[in-house]
Amino acid sequence: MIWHIIDMSRMWTALMLEAADAEAKNMSRQRGQRMLLQRLKNRERLLQKIPEWQFRAHYRLNKEEFHSLCDELRHNTSLKGSKTTSLELKVLTALNFYAMGSYQKGVANEVHMNQKSVSRCIREVTKALNEISNKWIQFPQTSTQRTKIKQGFYTKFNFPGVIGAIDCTHVAIVRPAADVLCFYNRKGFHSLNVQMVCDSDLRITNVNAKFDGASHNSHIWASRRLQSHMEALQLSGKSVWLLGDSGYPQRIYLMTPILNAEPGSRGENYTRVHVKARNCIERAFG
Question: Which of 59, 154, 172, 195 could serve as 95's disulfide partner, Cβ 3.0–4.6 Å?
């Protein structure tokens, strides 16, 4: 009888301890949820308080453009927020990394995340942006589209017939495991040599990110469908061309500067206007 009472006492003690432990875990979970909600609210308030100029410096977009991007990604891609990280915070994290070009740990400190979470945000947002890239990055295909871009270059730079400024930029990458020399560029680091075209308003209309850092601009140009497209436009009687620097070959559809033009000559005047107009792509990169 005594042993039975002792066993019953032990059982009830164990049940009470188990119930107390469950209650403690539940309270801890509730505290964690309250703290999480508070952190999310604090982030939202901080986002609202950041001055417009500072927001643009950190993320390269103004607040209106940022919210528009979030709406686009929310409704037209697979990107979703979670209980711990809102969609807006994921986008901010990725934008900060894109804009600053820093290490992920630095971004993690900026947005109060660990490096693993930052890496996940960058990966998810990049994937989502790729899902909508064809909607926003389009080379002019119709006469109306080309005319609009030509008008932009002519109005701003007095340069007729231009439908884009073209150049390449080196995007740094981690040292690859294979073909190391192919990715080692002339500037002394590993990269992809990315070719882009933009209009006079710095809108990107074409991107080619398939070449390693050791590839020359002219090689990338010769290997791209864009060259064939420009040739076809010229053969069909369209007076349109791109503006490139001296790293590109001079063609009837690709205008380059005249190096060492005589002072006061028509060549110097042409090159001066050319450089100002082509600078659009430098500004788009920067």
Answer: 59
* Residue 160 · residue 154 · CB < 8 Å: yes
First to last CA, the chain: 86
Separation of alpha carbons 270 and 256, rounded Å: 10
**Radius of gyration (Cα) for the chain, nearest Å?**
28
Q: Residue 280's closest CA among 169, 201, 196, 194? A: 201
Other Cβ atoms less than 10 A from the Cβ of 41: the count is: 10
Looking at every residue in the chain, the average pLDDT score rounds to 84
* Separation between Cα atoms, residue 211 and residue 198, nearest integer Å: 19
Quick: pLDDT tens for 160-205: 999 999 999 999 888 988 888 999 999 999 999 999 999 999 999 9
Tokens of 101: 């070009």
pTM of the model: 0.75
- CA nearest to 195, candidates 181, 183, 182, 206: 206
Amino acid, res. 163: I
Q: Which two tokens stand for residue 44?
A: 């939202």
Q: What is the pLDDT of residue 46?
A: 63
The count of C-alpha atoms lying within 13 angstroms of the C-alpha of 144, restricted to the half-sphere facing its C-beta, is: 0
Cβ atoms within 10 A of the Cβ of 259, count? 8
Q: How many helices (H) and strands (E) does the chain have?
A: 11, 5
> Above pLDDT 90, what percent of the chain?
56
